[in-house]
Task: structure prediction
Amino acid sequence: MSDDPRIPARGRTRLDSYVDRYASRTRGMTASEIRALFSVASRPEVVSLAGGMPNISGLPLDVVGAAIGDLVRTNGATAMQYGSGQGDPRLRDQICEVMRLEGIEAHPDDVVVTVGSQQAVDLVTRIFCDPGDVVICEAPSYVGALGAFRAYEVDVVHVEMDRDGLVPSALEQAIAAVRASGRRIKFLYTIPNYHNPAGVTLSTERRPEVLRICRDNDVLVLEDNPYGLLGFDDEPNRALRADEPEGVVYLGSFSKTFAPGFRVGWALAPHAVREKLVLAQESATLCPPAFSQMAVSAYLSAHDWQGQVKQFREMYRERRDAMVEALADMMPASARWNVPDGGFYVWLTLPEGLDAKAMLPRAVTGRVAYVPGTAFFADGFGSRSMRLSYCYPTPERIREGVRRLVGVIEEELELRETFGAGAHALDRGYEAPNTDLT
Amino acid sequence: MDDSTHAAAPVPGRILVLAGGLSHERDVSLRSGRRVAEALRDAGLEVEVRDVDATLLGHLHDDPPSCVVPLLHGESGEDGAIRSVLELARVPYVGSRPAPCRVAFDKPVAKAVVSREGTGTPEWVTLPAETFRELGAGAVMHALVEAIGVPLMVKPAQGGSALGCSVVRDEGALPGAMVGAFAYGDTAIVERFVTGTEVAVPVIDNGDGPRALPAVAITPDGGVYDYTARYTAGATEFQVPAKLDDDIAAECARVAVAAHEALGLRDLSRSDLIVDEDGTVWFLEVNVAPGLTETSTVPLALQAAGLDLGEVVAQLVEVAVARDAGNTP
Result:
C-alpha cells in the first residue's frame, strides 16, 4: 500500500495539502477546458492557427552553430558564468543599434536585458503596481501581459481600438473614468505595431496624440514592441519612445527577429526606473542568462541579421497573403477581419450570435485550432472574436485551416439558428468594447 | 523507452501504455498515461509510453509489446475503436473488449442497459441536433422542460471529463446548454438533475471476479464537478471511503458491479453515481478507461482499499497476458 501523505487512508482530502496556503493571486491558476483543447492542437492532424510561434525554419543554423561554437571556444568560461544583473554590456550596445532602426536614441546604460520581454512586463508591473492599481490596456490585449497583471492583482481597464489602433478619445475617457472612481493608473500598456492579437498598428497620426494624452495625465506608457521590425513595408514605424524618452518604458525582444529559445528581451527605461528594474531583475534571477545573451550578441555580429529579418518578413507576408486570400474566398460575408501590415496575427470577428470559445470543441473535432477572443480580455469580453496566427503553417496549410474553420462556422451558425442561443451578454456594468477592428 | 526494472515483481516484458490521441480528452489521457507509467515502473515493469498515430500499427508489428494498457479517454479510446485495432494486431491489452466499450461509451445506451437490470438511473431523453432542427428547437425544449422539469442536466451523449455538460436551472438557460453539448457531438442527453452526494465507484477484476473499491464522495468547491474542479488539485474535496450508511455504501458497490457485469466489461471500470437525499442510489454513467491522473478518483479508491496503483495495473497486465495465452478474450 502506498503511504502517500497527501491522501489519508480514510477521510477527506483535497489532493493538495497546501490549498489553504496559496497567495490570493493564484486564484485564477486552474485547469481549463480551453487549455486542454489546445493539447490536441499540437497534433500534426490539426491545422493550428492558434499559437504565435515564430517560424525560424529559415535561420542559418550553420552560422548560428559556428557562432556559438566559437563563443564556447573563445569565451566559454565567461558565457557560462554569472553575469551582470543589468545584462551583457556588449549586447546592450547592440540593442541600442537595433532600436535606432525605429528612431530611438538610447544609451546602453538605460537598457536592462530580461528573460524575454515577458519578464520585462513582469518586472515593470512588479515595481509599479500594488494590488488594485489600474493598468490601461488595449481591447483586446496580449494574453501574456494580462497574465502578468493578474499575478500582481492589477485591475485592467480595456480601451477601444479600431483599424488605426488605440482610439485617443477612448483613452482620454478611460483615464477620466478611472480617476473619477478614485483609483490609481500606473501605466498604459500598448503594442503599437502589428498588435498581438489584434493585428492593427497605431497610425502615425495618432502616435503624438496618445503620447500627449498620457503626458497631460501623467500616465506612464509601457510600449511593448516585439513585432516592430516585422512590418511588410521596408521602413519600420517610429517608436513612441523615440519621441518621449521620459514618459515611455520601451520593451523589445529577439524572439521574433532571431529565435525565442534564447529568451532574450530588454527594457529601455528612464534612469530612475532602470535602477529599480535592475534591482528587481537581480532579486528575480540574479542575472539574465549570460550564455544566451552572448550567443545573441555573437549572432548579431557574425550574421547579416537585418537581411535575415527581411527574409522573415517576406515569409510572413506570403503567409499573411495566404490567410487573407483564403478568408476572402471562403468566409461567410458576415464575418469580418483585418489585413495586418506586419506581425503574425489576423483578428477575426464572427457573425452575430457566434461564440468563439463555445465553438472551439467543434473546431478541434474539425481539426483546426484558434485562440478565442476572450483570452485577450481581462473581463470576459471578446467572445465573438478570435485570433488567427499565420506565422507558422505553410500557405497550403493555412488555406486548409481556413477551409476547415469555415466548415465549423457554418455548422455552428446552423446550430445557433436552430436554438437562437446568441452569445450571452455579459453584465459588467459597462458596455463591451468594439472588437470589430476592420 | 524506459527499461528500468528495479523491483522483484514478475516482469512480463515491455508494457506499452497508450496515451494522448486526438479526442478532446487528450490532455487528461496524457496525464493518466504519465502516472500509470510511473506506477508500473515503480512496480518493476518495463514501460513504454506512446501516443496513437499513424506509426502505431507498424510499431506493434515490428516490436510487439507483451501487453498494451490503453489509457485513451474519449472517442477512439473508449468507444472500442483502438481496442478493435489491438485485437486485429493480436496484442493483449488491459480493459474491456470493443463491443462492450461501444455500449458503455454511449451514455443513453449504457443507462438503458443498466436500468434494464433493475438499477435506477435518472430519467432521460436522447436527442440529436437534427431533431431540434426538424421539429423546432423551442417546442422540443419546452417539451423537455415539461417532462423532466428543472433543474436538469445536459450532456453530450458521448465523452467524459464533464466536457460540454451543464446544469440547467431555468428554461432560459437551456438553449445555451444544448449548444454547449452539441459542440462536443451530434447527440445530447437531457437528464433529470438529482440533488445529492456525487459518488465514484471503481470496479476491478484481477482474475477473481469484479469487486467494487471503496466509494469516493465528491464535493467540488463550486458545486459543479466540471473540468476545472476535476483537474485542479485543491478545487474539490474528496471523501474516501465516502461517509455513507453501510446499506447505502453496499448498494453503491452493488450498482457499480451490476453495471460492470450488465455491460460485459472486464478488468477495470468506474461508475459515477449519485445518492439522493432519501438514500436512493442512481446510476449516471460508466467509464471503461477511467482517469488515473493525480486528481482522479480511482487512485484514491485504490489507496483507501490498501492497494497500489502500479501493482494493481501490473496484476491486470498479467491477467490480460494470461487471457491472451489461453485465447479466452
